[in-house]
Amino acid sequence: MELTLFTSAFCEPCMQTRAVLAEAARLVPAATVTELDIVRYEDRAVAEGIRTTPTVIVRDASGAEVFRAEGVPTVQQVLVAAAKAV
Questions:
Q1: Residue 66 exposure: Cα atoms within 13 Å on the Cβ side
Q2: Average pLDDT over residues 37-53
Q3: Would the pTM of this model clear 0.90, i.e. be above it?
């Protein structure tokens, strides 16, 4: 499963979200975390419909989106999404 974090420079909530995803990845070793800056990866951010940072998207093994959070999700929200992605 893939946990994708869209971020922007100087985004305090993005730093908090990094910590949430790090904890989720520690608890779910099968999870892969990818962080993409919306300026550097503007085309992908537009294609994904990113409107705010941080935005977290959780995808299952087939690439289907099972969860999206704008703002800082809780570890519990990410773990529930991870369970859906399995």
A1: 19
A2: 97
A3: yes
